[in-house]
Specification:
The structure holds two protein chains of two kinds. Helices cover about 0% and strands about 50% of the residues of chain A. The termini of chain A are far apart. By secondary structure, chain B is mainly beta. Chain B is built from no helices and eleven strands. The chains are: A mainly beta, B mainly beta. At the A-B interface, strand 5, strand 6 and strand 11 of A face strand 5 and strand 10 of B.
Chain lengths: ~110, ~110
């Protein structure tokens, strides 16, 4: 079956530091890949997406590249802000069959200190 | 454009009761999915609806059910509530099943 593995948190950084959150996946078909962010007490917000190999998703300074050869979709940001403190989820949606459910990683808590 | 709206935001129920949660998708979106989020199990898929038909169901007991109406609004129902059903229930909508999904703020259910 499909699965997503992302780095365990929590991750604590100082403002303006570089961020990487690792994500690798296993899928039976040809998945689309997503990063979602969840702020305290809120639902999930779609941060970025990539639908095929070598696609780069980007939004609000965050980037992730779909690497089929390493089955990875690592999230990066060059300079984090306090407002980036949240839980980040990597997810895949397999388009090869008929079940389009999202499969999520366990989430990574990011805390950015001023 | 309004986002996904879930009501109510918070619920407290007693063991054995039943509960109905509501989700209004983004206008024009015909696919609605439900997920349960708990600290122990993370985000788990409950079911997916498209054009009033349940297309897929996750590995949850029959106490969990849902439906979708002709205007794409969806409801999920949990009968005979158990303490372990305490969770954040998230609804997601998308134009079609295979494209990106947008989530509501969730309904926080507490079973006491």
């Amino acid at each position: 079956g499909n699965s997503v593995t992302q780095m365990e948190g929590p991750v604590t950084l100082s403002e303006e530091a570089f961020l990487t959150i690792n994500c690798t996946y296993t899928a039976t078909g040809y998945p689309s890949l997503f990063w979602y962010v969840q702020y305290p007490g809120e639902g999930l917000q779609l941060l970025l997406k990539a639908t095929k190999a070598d696609d780069k998703g980007s939004n609000k300074g965050f980037e992730a590249t779909y690497r089929k050869e390493t089955t990875s979709f690592h999230l990066e940001k060059g300079s984090v802000q306090v407002s980036d403190s949240a839980v980040y989820f990597c997810a895949l949606r397999d388009s090869g069959g008929s079940n389009y459910k999202l499969t999520f990683g366990k989430g990574t808590l990011l805390t950015v200190n001023p | 454009k309004a986002g996904v709206t879930q009501t109510p935001r918070y619920l407290i129920k007693t063991r054995g009761q039943q509960v109905t949660l509501s989700c209004s998708p983004i206008s024009g979106h015909r696919s609605v999915s439900w997920y349960q989020q708990t600290p122990g199990q993370g985000l788990q898929f409950l079911f997916e609806y498209f054009s009033e038909t349940q297309r897929n169901k996750g590995n949850f007991p029959g106490r969990f059910s849902g439906r979708q109406f002709s205007n794409s609004r969806s409801e999920m129902n949990v009968s005979t509530l158990e303490l372990g059903d305490s969770a954040l229930y998230l609804c997601a909508s998308s134009l079609a099943p295979a494209v990106e999904a947008f989530f509501g703020q969730g309904t926080r259910l507490t079973v006491v």
